[in-house]
């Protein structure tokens, strides 16, 4: 069973009367996707070898094979910033140009890249991981969404960058290798910019018409304007209502609306929306600030050691095998 108690106990990401909607097992019940390039990407992937097609008059011509920018060789690659855009008062989208129009980032699902910056007075460079929000097959550029943190050397530098400046990148670093239908159902628990690796995974699932994985997202933020990728997530919910559900928690939830829960992600909320432990081939992913990890799952021991599960998930009966910490 999907939930331990009725959805009606939640103020969730849609009007309450719609919150009892159940997942359907029939693929035909889904709406046809119109989300960005989902259909085009799916068709291109089926064509193989990284080929894309465009229409010139009545003829379809193949593009050259895509060229990966980051190939995991341990080398740093400088890329030029070509566009910046504020998404919220403390969050920016930064677009970096790839070497040619036929280059893609080189990332796989689910993986991240490293950024490096050394200021004039720094004893050593600052290195931080990020997950681009552009599709892995996107040619010519890739986008990072970066929230500026007080005292954060990399986020401050990225927010201070001007178009035309260069930034060093390395990767990709594989985090959790995804294959279609690897799990029947995944739950993504995200806080703030922790949504980016979740979005990479969710997007890959719904890009692929052969992947029937069901997805639940629990997304915590401070205010409504802090919710990143809200439009894209809402489109997914509308397009795949039988397979994708999103639940939002806000430290400062708008009182006049009933679509978000006031406060942090709680044990009671997780108990309601998570599948029962050992009820099937399910997986829980979590990514967010350190306090979220400590409260919900426990932190990782190291990049290569997930550590034991503690916090709310352990109290609810989930084990190390059920949980992956980004």
Automatic annotation (TrEMBL):
One of its GO terms (molecular function) is cytochrome-b5 reductase activity, acting on NADH. Residues 74-179 form the FAD-binding FR-type domain. It comes from the Eukaryota. It is a single-pass membrane protein. Its main location: mitochondrion. Keywords: FAD, Flavoprotein, Membrane, Mitochondrion, Mitochondrion outer membrane, NAD, Oxidoreductase, Transmembrane, Transmembrane helix. Its EC number is 1.6.2.2. PANTHER family: NADH-CYTOCHROME B5 REDUCTASE, NADH-CYTOCHROME B5 REDUCTASE 2. This is NADH-cytochrome b5 reductase. The lineage of its organism: Eukaryota, Fungi, Dikarya, Ascomycota, Pezizomycotina.
């Amino acid at each position: 069973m999907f939930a331990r108690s009725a959805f009606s106990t939640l103020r969730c990401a849609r009007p309450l009367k719609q919150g009892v909607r159940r997942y359907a097992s029939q693929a035909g019940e889904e709406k046809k996707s119109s989300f960005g390039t989902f259909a085009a990407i799916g068709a291109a992937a089926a064509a193989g070898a990284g080929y894309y097609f465009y229409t010139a008059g009545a003829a379809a011509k193949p593009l050259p094979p895509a060229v990966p920018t980051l190939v995991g060789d341990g080398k740093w690659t400088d890329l030029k910033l070509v566009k910046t855009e504020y998404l919220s008062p403390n969050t920016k989208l930064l677009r970096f140009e790839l070497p040619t129009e036929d280059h893609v980032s080189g990332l796989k699902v689910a993986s991240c890249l490293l950024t490096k910056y050394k200021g004039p007075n720094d004893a050593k460079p600052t290195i931080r991981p990020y997950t681009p929000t552009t599709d892995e097959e996107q040619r010519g550029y890739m986008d990072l969404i970066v929230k500026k943190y007080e005292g954060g050397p990399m986020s401050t530098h990225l927010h201070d960058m001007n178009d035309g400046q260069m930034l060093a990148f390395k990767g990709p670093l594989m985090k959790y290798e995804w294959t279609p239908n690897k799990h029947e159902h995944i739950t993504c628990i995200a806080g703030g910019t922790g949504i980016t690796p979740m979005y990479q995974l969710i997007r890959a699932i719904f890009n692929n018409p052969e992947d029937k994985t069901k997805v639940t997202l629990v997304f915590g933020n401070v205010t409504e304007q802090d919710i990143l990728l809200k439009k894209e997530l809402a489109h997914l919910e509308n397009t795949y209502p039988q397979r994708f559900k999103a639940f939002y928690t806000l430290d400062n939830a708008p009182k006049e609306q009933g679509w978000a829960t006031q406060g942090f992600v709680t044990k009671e909320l997780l108990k309601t929306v998570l599948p029962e432990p050992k009820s099937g081939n399910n997986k829980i992913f979590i990514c967010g600030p350190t306090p979220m990890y400590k409260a919900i799952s426990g932190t990782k021991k190291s990049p290569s050691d997930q550590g034991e599960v503690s916090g709310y998930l352990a109290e609810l009966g989930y084990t190390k095998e059920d949980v992956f910490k980004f």
